[in-house]
Amino acid sequence: MTSADHIRDTVRRYVETVGTGTAADVVALYREDATVEDPVGSEVRVGHAAITEFYAAIESLDTSTELLSIRVAGNSAAFNFRVITRFGEQTFTLEPIDVMTFDEDGRITSMRAFWSQDDMVVS
Amino acid sequence: MTSADHIRDTVRRYVETVGTGTAADVVALYREDATVEDPVGSEVRVGHAAITEFYAAIESLDTSTELLSIRVAGNSAAFNFRVITRFGEQTFTLEPIDVMTFDEDGRITSMRAFWSQDDMVVS
Question: Which residues in chain B touch residue A79, judged by CB atoms under 8 angstroms apart?
């Protein structure tokens, strides 16, 4: 089993690369056969190609991110983070709670993001 | 599907009854065949009898609780809450992130709590 510190480190890098990295940077943190369900209840994306498509859609946006809290249990983590997206004159702030599982090498094997449009704050 | 407001209301009542209610009060929020995994990675408790046993263990403690944040997605919720337990001269503070699923009537069908001993703050 991967250590709690390793998991925390991967989550920190995930939040950071979602804010400043490319889609490829983010996807490199996932295992090849990983799954992404964002938001929970939507279609599950399976594998690097489908996951790359997902992050490519947000890659070009002007975003900044911050990890707010993280809890590690076994080979899983739940964490709350802030994503601020600037688009023209407007700022969109979202604070999802994500749940991830990890393999023995600390790679993400699944991600599920809990949020809805109601949680988006526009200013 | 139960509404997001109904889910939020059930989570608020859950956090409140964990702080001030009896084990029976908490268990009444769960469907008869519900599952509890607390913390994630530990044995899964199935059904009202096993879940009652779990909450009975904390029923007599002097605790207070507060909901910190909640995200609803589909028939699921993830939320961060604070549990403060006073025991003699010491205060134990824990802020787990829980994930729950709900049935059509807003009853909890599963709960998974993300936290570890490392997250416990003793003061």
Answer: 97
One-letter amino acid for residue A36 of the chain: V
pLDDT tens-digit readout, A36-95: 999 999 999 999 999 999 999 888 889 999 999 999 999 999 999 999 999 999 999 999
Which domains are delineated in chain A? 4-122 (3.10.450.50)
Half-sphere exposure of residue B64, counting CA atoms within 13 Å on the CB side? 2
Instruction: Count the Cβ atoms, other than its own, within 10 Å of residue B96.
Output: 21
Here the tokens at position B49 are 């009898």
Interface of B with A (CB under 8 A): 4, 39-41, 69, 71-80, 95-97, 99, 113-116, 118-119
Q: Do A71 and B41 touch (CB under 8 A)?
A: no
In the numeric block, the tokens 């600037």 are attached to: A86
Compute the nearest-CA separation of B95 from chain A (Å): 9
What's the rounded mean pLDDT across residues B21-49? Answer: 97
Alpha-carbon gap, residue B77 to B4, rounded angstroms: 9
ipTM: 0.90
The answer to whether residue B1 scores a pLDDT higher than 70 is no
